[in-house]
Amino acid sequence: MSNSGSDAVYVEKLEKRFGRFAAVDKISFSVDRGEVFGLLGPNGAGKSTTIRMLCGIISPTSGYGRVAGYDIFSEAEAIKRSIGYMSQRFSLYEDMTPLENIRFYLGVYEVPQEVWRERIEWVLDMARLQDVRHRITRELPPGWRQRLALGCALLHRPEILFLDEPTSGVDPITRRSFWEFIDKLAQEGVTVFVTTHYMDEARNCQRLVMLNEGKIAAMGSPSEIISEVFPGRPGADLGDVFIRLMARRQE
Amino acid sequence: MNPVTIKAIARKEFYHLVRDFRSMYLAFVIPLLMILMFGYALSLDVDSVKVVIVDHDKTKESRELAQKLNASAYFQIVRQLNDSLVAVRYLDQGLTTMAIVIPPGWTEDLKADREASLQVLLDGSDPNFAGISRGYITAFVEAYNRDQLLSFLNRKGMDEIKAPVDGRIRVWFNEDLESQNFIVPGIIAIIIMIVGAMLTSLVIAREYENGTMETIRSLPVGGGELLLGKAIPYFLIALTDVLVAVFMGQVLFGVVMKSSFCLLVLASTIYISVALSLGFLISIATKSQLVANQMAILITFLPSLLLSNFVFPIGNMPKIFQMLTYIIPATYFIDILNGLYLRGLGLSHLGQSYLILVGMLIVLSYAGFALLRKEGM
Which residues of A touch B219 (CB under 8 A)? Predict the structure, then answer.
């Protein structure tokens, strides 16, 4: 349990079983503060289960873990207050307007009333939704909804932002501007923890954990992982690594 | 339990409600329709019995009998017929509920002090109606006999005699025996179940179906805060519906409450909360709006309608159903409302029913809370 207090995320032998099936099989890793950290893997690898355990949505079967300095078994409430979470479904109420969604998040995160106005303007500017603040969210294009969902997850200024496949169903241009925004957040000191199965997104991460069938297949920076799996093959990229590692496991 | 969080959830729930056509329909249109339909259509009173009369005797006396019948507020002669078989056909086709046959020689028998029989055929397919009709015609025949007796005594120059027993009946509660007086309390109980339990049964299932339950779990929101916040808008709507029902009952049907208005609001508050807890429990257990709605109809709406002493008296039910009525919240609420509305009773008589409802509220809300916790909230 070395220096677990200063890491943004620290887990050791974290396990989640559904009956006899181990969705996450005793994994250990840590995430530095201010880092953009990626959890990469095919569908069913255990990415979502891991991120949901870290966010206090489901409780682990066994192991140890701290997020933002709080224990994931006993301090889920405190964790929820210090993190932002956005899932692939964009976590919005689609029958409400952007403004109403924002107010809902401000309320449940107990953001002090005196900063509401300022935060609302900040999110609407950031998500470029000023003109549609009174439109019903369902009618907005997916990319706009995604920006709104991201803004809602940041309203209470969390230390760590968890993104579960944040760009699925969004076009490449929107995805690019999304990642530019993530980089900006990281520069401001926010830790970003993201799951994905897109290689180009994984490249944006400073460090990666590759997950397959609940186990860690590789860990490190993108270039470290490439040279570890393909030593002496400079042309190889993350996609090759992914295919190689996932194929090896399935034999 | 943070009031800011609860308020944010209540506000969100309110938006869902006003933007969902079906919910608005259930919340406001159905209650209004029910008041009007039950109040006007489901009148259990029998105003006038339709009669066809077959007069084989054709005398002054037999015609007088028919006139007397028609003059009474309880009967309405729809047709004079000559053939008993045709009268039977009228009954078969439902054109009349009663056929009266005056046999030939009836007046002669009457004058000769022989038994003069009058045949009365009654449609028994609606037992309630037939029972009341039988009561009316029996009373009518008795009154006719009495008149005959009096005129006989008069003719003989004798004094009036008094009947040995004179039953003086006074109806204690609900003096006019207006069924609307007990229908209005019943409607209030049903409306609360519809608005309270059927609407809220959709509420948590909707979060599961839309995937937003995941969002809520990722937020610092406790199970108690979630349930309380969601309950507030539905509670207010149900209470509004109750007040509208009370008001309409008074204006349209002249049903005036005898006891304290505060006691009515108190009882409604408790009963609405019971309905909400039941709806939440169903919603958490089923996680599907369709299944939840079916369940809500089956375990809240129907029992409240059928097993609550509203339409069908509990005393007439088989033992096993009588036992079942004890676990139906509406039974106690209707007991309270009848007490308040018709009997003008206070808390000293109705306290037990209040307490039972409070007990149900504690059990149901705890069950919902525990189930939500088990689901990881």
Answer: 80, 105, 108-109
Report whether pLDDT(A93) > 50: yes
- Do A81 and B220 count as a contact with CB atoms less than 8 A apart? yes
| Confidence (pLDDT) at B226 | 93
pLDDT, tens digit, 9 for 90 and up, residues B51-66: 999 988 888 888 888 8
Residues of A whose CB is below 8 A from B210? 93-94
A178-228 residue pLDDT tens: 889 899 899 988 999 999 888 888 888 999 999 988 889 889 988 888 888
CA-to-CA dists, residue A250 to A238, A245, B46, angstroms: 18, 9, 80
Shortest Cα distance, chain B CAs vs residue A57, angstroms: 5
> B197-227: string of b/e by CB count within 10 Å (b at 16+)?
bbbbbbbbbbbbebebbbbbbbbbbbbebbb
A109 and B16: CB-CB below 8 Å?
no
User: Cβ separation of B214 and A57 shorter than 8 Å?
Assistant: yes
Give the chain A residue whose CA is nearest to the CA of B9: A104
- B5 and chain A: CB distance < 8 Å anywhere? yes
Decide if A100 and B12 are in contact by the 8 Å CB cutoff: yes
Q: Which CATH architecture has domain B49-155?
A: 3-Layer(aba) Sandwich (3.40)
The tens digit of pLDDT for each residue in B173-213 reads 666 656 666 777 888 888 888 888 888 998 999 999 888 88
Residue given tokens 């943070």 in the structure block: B2
Determine the Cα–Cα distance for residues B187 and B183; give it in Å rounded to an integer. Answer: 6
Closest to B297 (Cα-Cα) out of B278, B312, B316: B278
Interface confidence: ipTM more than 0.90: no
pLDDT at residue A235 greater than cutoff 80? no
Shortest Cα–Cα distance, A181 to chain B (Å): 22
For chain A, give the mean pLDDT: 88
Whole-number pLDDT of residue B174: 61
This prediction's pTM: 0.79
Contact partners, residue A215, CB within 8 Å, separation at least 6: A25, A27, A249
Query: Which residue do the tokens 């682990």 mark?
Result: A60
User: B271: closest CA among B342, B223, B336?
Assistant: B336
DSSP reduced 3-state for A22: strand
State whether residue A85 sits within 8 Å of chain B by CB.
Answer: yes
Residue B2, chain A, CB below 8 Å: the answer is: yes
In chain B, where the domains are located: 3-42+179-374, 49-155
